[in-house]
Amino acid sequence: MSRSAILPALAAILIVSGCDREPDPAPQESERTGTGEAAATGEIDRSFAGELMPAANLVNPADEVLNLGALQGRPVLVNLWATWCAPCVKEMPLLDELAADYGGALNVVTVSQDMEGPAKVAAFFEENGLENLPQWIDPQLALGEAIGASTLPTTVLYDRQGQEVWRVTGDYDWASEEARAAIEEVVETPQVP
């Protein structure tokens, strides 16, 4: 097997190992809050600060291509997720709300790691009423490999120059004061406080 075939396969194995392969009717969670909701497991990690945003090519259900590196000029929050990943699914509505709240001040880019194609992603967005997030797909899993994402979800905040500020591995409460304060390190003023 050639090196070019091994790397995507290895990336897929690493990503799948971090999250359930298929959602269970009642996904297992490690912690629960007093309300019965699963507690977020991710924490802000600044150990990769200064790393450059990869210039990976993404596609959407309309077969449009986006080179992630072209987004420099405003802050970008990149979220790697999959429809079969229970923690990913849990945080998608929070990311949708975050994108609506920050509007043009923050580019929230969700990147599916699903291998079943654009129709699966488009159906997920429609079923869940996600109106403020893009439907980008990483068909070769190149982005996950480039940023070293071994678990889903993985979310990375980049500043205007395309340099990593911090990342979160695992699900996170994107509606929390902590999340908003961390985002506002690079975004001056959100549209909605």
UniProtKB/TrEMBL annotation:
Keywords: Cytochrome c-type biogenesis, Redox-active center. Residues 20-188 form the Thioredoxin domain. Residues 21-34 have a biased composition (Basic and acidic residues). Residues 21-40 are annotated as: Disordered. InterPro entries: Redoxin, Thioredoxin-like_sf, Thioredoxin_CS, Thioredoxin_domain, Thioredoxin_ResA/DsbE_sf. GO terms for cellular component: cell envelope. It comes from the Bacteria. PROSITE patterns: PROKAR_LIPOPROTEIN (PS51257), THIOREDOXIN_1 (PS00194), THIOREDOXIN_2 (PS51352). It holds the Pfam family Redoxin. This is TlpA family protein disulfide reductase. The lineage of its organism: Bacteria, Pseudomonadati, Pseudomonadota, Alphaproteobacteria, Sphingomonadales.
